[in-house]
Design a protein that fits this description.
The structure holds two protein chains of two kinds. The longest helix of chain A has 37 residues. In chain A, 42% of the residues lie in helices and 20% in strands. By secondary structure, chain A is of the alpha+beta class. In chain A, strand 3 and strand 4 form a beta hairpin. In chain B, the strands form ten sheets. In chain B, strands 29-33-34-36-37-38-35 form a seven-stranded mixed beta sheet, with helices on both faces. In chain B, strands 3, 4, 5, 6, 11 and 12 form a six-stranded antiparallel beta sheet that branches. In chain B, strands 14-17-20-21-22 form a five-stranded mixed beta sheet. Chain B is globular, with a radius of gyration of 38 Å. The chains are: A alpha+beta, B alpha+beta. At the A-B interface, helix 5, strand 1, strand 2, strand 3 and strand 5 of A face helix 5, helix 10, helix 13, helix 15 and helix 16 of B.
Chain lengths: 346, 815
């Protein structure tokens, strides 16, 4: 029995020694060395284990249990210390790598699309979704297409409204996107239905805060059997709601264009005051946004269609005008001044 | 066009207040731009009686008047001493007095003031001051109020407020007339017809218009003794009516007439001229009064001008005439440009005793050409060039004669000259009510439509024409519905109504556009398409914006000097540009054949505004002259221009910025190419772009600029078909387009060797699908470009090879 007590004391001593050593260890490598020193093949505990031979057989199992308990205790000591060390290490690293998130970030350059083209795309998207094709025509146009085929013969007073730039002979810079109507109809005839819009550049001899020698328009044309003025109202109502919000209302006033009959001027409820009257709408509650009408029978005929068989409607709007309303810009020239300080706000 | 409500109310009963009438007219297509109260602000002006009129003691030009402004009653009479600039009123005359505290139109406040040592207690008013709030003409006299009963508010009383005497609380509508409505709404009568048509809906009695006709009997000599008329050009002057009035007494017109002219924006002159203007406003028929005594041989000839003939018009300008111009002449010389302006030589003056009144119908195109040529936009020309109803001409002449008798004491000559060889007949238009409904999306039966048209004073005959389609099978019990045709007779004053569609518009606007229900087009569903090249272009624009470039839109015009400034060789193809025949300014006289000058200008403007880094792009059109210049439209191409200038990015606290160089730009070009899926290679090329001489400054160690141009002949981003894209870039590290130091004008030390680059793309697309990432390492990136040599077997595109445009460039009339 005395040997057993001796060995037990020795075990306790080793365990106590290991405990103080483990607690003193500061790095994972030291812990590994301690593990070898106490638990390894040549370790202290292994050496004690060999003393089992000195004991009588009936005491050996008890000694075995004692050794195992000590061994487990040391293992646990090592593991917990290792874990503590790792925790400390992470904390230290985090402390070392700490960022001041309140410092400003490094900026990335950001480009901007031109506001007129943003509106152009928005208009296109609405009409393409309604089944309209997007058509194009040349900017340098024949007088025939720009005027004559659209029912504006020479000496027609309507030419006063559109002072043109002439190029050579009968060639001019188109004053409206309407000639695309004729080109499109002639290219498609006798196909039905025709639903197209033609956005593009137009030119007029005008230059002030509300006129520019170059600006952009979108033309629209629908030709089919049984198209009515009611259909024109329906399409443009939908467009106005898509463009200016669900609360937008439209108002159709009789007007005059040589290539439509009946013709209408279309107003939309003021985007600023909603129709109660403000400075933007001149206290009328309405903003003029586009001209429209039923395609004149002569224009249908010029396009190759039989006006007795089909009817159609057409409309045209200024893209800058809509961009000015949408963004509250009050001077048309800002769009073509290309001041980056202006463009970068869109 | 301005229309007075008071004048309008004389012809038609207006059942609405002014604002509502304006709204209703606007919604019927006669746009009322503004509702004005021109005499608003006028207050305190009263009628006074002149008791004495003496010379001002200290001035020859001034007068001193004593005026009674309050009659002797319980409170006692009130008299004012007023310094006046004109001395025409006699003691006993009634005048308009603005006592201290009175306000004239436009907010002009009258105060007591001392003039040459005399205190003036107010002002005696001339017509311009009272009606327009304007300074009087130098020779204008004080307005004398005739003591008769011809005023809206009864005979004038001393101390009466002139607002009530002359109805100066009038409302004036300013009309913004479209070319077609201008035809018949450029007169009070025309607007009255519109109002009547609208008002008839409320009350049929309001649908009647009281025509302001003039009745007179010839009491003087026969008109042939006043003048005779020969029309040599009946094509250009289809109708000429002439009336004579003798024994005229020119002088100021009565107040009511002056007031209506002033309300319509015309300045009163004298009673004869005022009457012609008055009738023009009333009936829309311009009139001219010739001083008959000054007509050579008492003859009027309507003829083309002779070569080298000239005429001093009423505005005092000498006009050189030729055969293109239609003139009114006497036996010897021209006395007026037909339909545009009269001549000084036969102008009505205070000495005029007899006049020949001209009321004519001239060819609108001829008047338009003449008025444009001389730059005269007279009230007459504006009306004639639209259309003046030839069948109203004698009515207006009669009205003017009657008025001259009434207000200028004239005696009408017996008879009337009327040259009208081929009378205009009213149009008869066949209108199918079913067709009108189809066009409008309405459901109005023939009677409804006829009623609407009759409100416009159109005559309508209904004719049962043919069985309604689809209902031919009549049974004994139910006879076939007959389709009704309407035959509409349109008065000649409505020249704009020419076909069924025009009649449909008249129906629609009276019915109300607002009452037509909104529907959506029925029929085949279609999908909207955009051309793939446009989709690609938009994708590239978005991509470039994402890469930090800002889109600009520049004018399509160029200054012709820009090529020299860029030092293009004289024979360089870029110099071939389309020229405008009538540019607004010289710097907008060319259509650009390339984008580079435009984006350079946009960048330069920003540099002048102290931008420190400019990154921009433009996707725009250029115009290249066609081979046969007047017979083929110029070729249009869409091109992309990229420009980098200054620093490579925004400033930051923890990064040093670098100035951009050629390789930044090249990287960008490569990125765009990769984005659209084409491959390319770079090589030096012409043109050499160098800064022009003295006008440009050298940068002071300034930033670097670099630019590139990329032309896309064809752009097929996804398909594997052959496409050809070429692009060229130039780098000019030593050159500064008018930069921030433009004040130091110094020639560049030496034109540094040009860094012009060109990148050829092979004739096919590289990116036709996707590729599995290789396990062996990164896929070979395209490093095969070189700055000096062609690589990878690329070829240059054939010079001048054109790609088909999506539209035809040839000229074609008719379908």
């Amino acid at each position: 029995m005395t040997e057993l007590r001796e060995l037990e004391r020795a075990l306790s001593a080793v365990e106590a020694e290991a405990r103080s050593a483990v607690e003193a260890a500061a790095r994972p490598e030291e812990l590994e060395a301690l593990r070898l020193r106490y638990l390894g093949k040549k370790g202290r505990l292994t050496a004690l284990k060999r003393e089992v031979g000195r004991l009588p057989a009936e005491l050996r199992p008890e000694f075995g249990r004692m050794v195992n308990r000590a061994s487990a205790a040391i293992e646990a000591m090592l593991a917990s210390r290792l874990e503590a060390l790792a925790r400390d290490e992470t904390a230290r690293r985090l402390e070392a790598e700490r960022l001041d998130v309140t410092f400003p970030g490094r900026p990335w350059p950001r480009g901007h699309l031109h506001p007129v083209y943003q509106v152009w795309e928005a208009i296109e998207a609405i009409f393409v979704a309604m089944g309209f094709d997007v058509a194009e025509g040349p900017q340098v146009e024949w007088d025939d297409y720009n005027f004559v085929a659209l029912n504006i013969p020479k000496d027609h007073p309507a030419r006063d409204m559109q002072q043109s730039f002439y190029v050579a002979g009968e060639m001019l810079l188109r004053t409206q996107t309407s000639p695309v109507q004729i080109r499109y109809m002639r290219a498609r005839c006798p196909e039905l239905p025709i639903r197209m819009i033609a956005p593009g550049r137009v030119f007029r001899r005008d230059d002030d805060a509300t006129h520019s020698p170059m600006f952009h328009q979108v033309e629209g044309l629908v030709v089919d059997r049984g198209i009515s003025l009611g259909d024109l109202k329906g399409c443009l109502d939908l467009f106005a709601r898509e463009m200016f919000g669900a609360a937008a209302r439209t108002r159709f006033r009789p007007s005059y264009f040589p290539f439509t009959e009946p013709s209408a001027e279309v107003d939309v409820s003021c985007t600023v005051c909603g129709g109660t009257g403000c400075r933007t709408c001149g206290y009328s509650g309405w903003l003029e946004i586009l001209g429209a009408g039923m395609v004149h029978p002569q224009v249908l005929a010029n396009g190759g269609y039989d006006p007795e068989e089909v009817t159609g409607f057409a409309f045209g709007m200024g893209i800058e005008r809509i961009a000015m309303l949408r963004y509250g810009v009050d001077d048309l020239r800002l769009f073509f001044g290309n001041d980056l300080r202006f463009l970068e706000q869109f | 066009m301005r229309v007075s409500l008071e004048w309008l109310s004389e012809m038609v009963t207006v059942p609405w207040p002014a604002e509502e009438l304006a709204e209703r007219l606007t919604m019927a297509g006669v746009k009322v731009e503004a509702v004005r109260r021109p005499f608003d602000g006028l207050s305190g002006v009263v009628v006074g009686r002149v008791e004495a009129m003496d010379r001002h003691p200290a001035s020859d030009a001034l007068w001193l008047a004593r005026v009674l402004v309050t009659e002797e009653t319980g409170t006692g009479a009130r008299r004012l001493t007023i310094v006046s600039g004109a001395g025409n009123p006699r003691p006993g005359d009634l005048v308009c007095v603005a006592p201290p505290g009175a306000v004239l139109p436009g907010g002009w406040r009258i105060d007591r003031q001392e003039i040459r040592g005399q205190v003036s207690e107010g002002m005696l008013l001339a017509a311009s001051e009272l009606l327009l709030g304007a300074k009087p003409r130098p020779d204008e006299e004080i307005l004398v109020v005739a003591p008769d009963a011809s005023y809206p508010g009864g005979p004038p009383r001393i101390g009466q407020d002139v607002v009530s005497l002359l109805e100066l609380d009038d409302v004036v509508f300013e009309l913004d007339l479209t070319p077609n409505y201008a035809v018949h709404c450029q007169s009070v009568f025309g607007v009255a017809m519109e109002v009547a048509a609208l008002a008839a809906e409320v009350d049929p009695a309001c649908g009647r218009v009281r025509k302001p006709v003039g009745e007179w009997a010839g009491e003087g000599p026969p008109v042939s003794e006043v003048a005779r008329v020969v029309v040599e050009e009946p094509e250009l002057c289809p109708r000429y009516v002439g009336c004579g009035v003798v024994e005229l007494k020119p002088g100021p017109a009565p107040l009511w007439l002056q007031r209506r002219l002033a309300a319509s924006g015309l300045r009163p002159i004298n009673n004869v001229v005022d009457v012609t203007n008055y009738v023009m406003l009333e009936w829309g028929q311009p009139l001219h009064a010739f001083d008959a005594a000054r007509l050579e041989d008492r003859t009027i000839v309507v003829r083309r001008a002779r070569p080298k003939e000239s005429l001093v018009t009423l505005d005092g300008v000498e006009r050189n005439l030729d055969e293109e111009v239609l003139v009114i002449a006497d036996a010897r010389r021209a006395v007026g440009i037909a339909g545009v302006m009269g001549g000084e030589n036969t102008e009505v003056s205070s000495a005029t005793r007899e006049v020949l009144l001209e009321a004519a119908h001239f060819d609108p195109r001829s008047v338009r050409r003449t008025s444009q040529r001389f730059g005269i936009r007279s009230e007459a020309a504006i009306r004639f060039e639209k259309w003046v109803d030839p069948n109203t001409t004698p009515v207006a002449a009669d009205r003017a004669v009657a008025l001259l008798r009434e207000v200028a004491g004239g005696v009408p000559a017996r008879g009337r000259i009327d040259c009208y060889p081929r009378p205009y007949e009213p149009r008869r238009i066949r209108v199918r009510p079913r067709r009108v409904n189809l066009l409008l999306g309405t459901d109005l039966d023939a009677t409804d439509q006829a009623n609407l048209l009759e409100r416009l004073h159109f005559e309508v005959d209904a004719v049962a024409a043919y069985p309604a389609p689809g209902r031919e099978a009549a049974t004994a019990a139910q006879p076939a519905d007959r389709e009704i045709d309407l035959w509409v007779t349109v008065p000649t004053r409505r020249q704009d109504v020419a076909g069924e569609a025009d009649v449909a518009e008249e129906i629609a606007r009276l019915y109300g556009y607002g009452r037509i229900a909104s529907t959506m087009p029925r029929g085949q569903l279609t999908r909207g398409h955009r051309r793939p090249v446009r989709q690609a272009a938009d994708q590239v624009r978005h991509h470039l914006a994402g890469l930090g470039l800002t889109e600009v839109v520049t004018y399509a015009f160029l200054h012709p000097g820009v090529f020299d400034r860029l030092r293009l060789p004289p024979d360089h193809p870029h110099r071939r540009a389309v020229r405008l025949r009538n540019p607004m300014t010289e710097d907008q006289s060319l259509l650009r054949p390339w984008l580079v000058p435009s984006v350079l200008e946009a960048a330069a403007a920003n540099v002048r505004r102290r931008a420190d880094s400019v990154r921009l792009f433009e996707l725009g059109t250029v115009h290249l002259p066609a081979g046969k210049e007047a017979e083929e439209l110029p070729r249009e191409e869409t091109r992309l221009a990229l420009l980098l200038w200054g620093y490579d990015g925004p400033p930051a606290w923890n990064r040093s910025r670098r100035e951009v160089d050629f390789y930044d730009l090249k990287g960008l070009v490569e990125e765009v190419l990769a984005f659209v899926g084409v491959d390319g290679a770079f090589a030096p090329a012409t043109p050499r772009i160098t800064p022009a001489g003295r006008r440009w400054s050298r940068p002071r160690g300034g930033p670097l600029d670099t630019w590139a141009r990329c032309t896309r002949r064809s752009w097929r981003p996804t398909a594997g078909t052959a496409g050809r894209t070429w692009l060229s870039c130039t780098s000019r590290p030593s050159w500064n387009w008018p930069g921030p130091c433009a004040s130091t004008c110094r020639r560049p030390a030496s034109p540094a060797p040009s860094g012009t680059w060109r990148c050829w793309c092979p004739g096919h697309c590289r990116r036709t699908g996707w590729r599995r990432p290789s396990a062996k390492g990164p896929a070979p990136s395209w490093t095969a470009w070189s700055c000096s040599t062609f690589t990878r077997g690329t070829r240059s595109p054939k010079a001048g090879a054109a790609w088909p445009t999506p539209w035809s460039t040839g000229r074609r009339t008719g379908p």
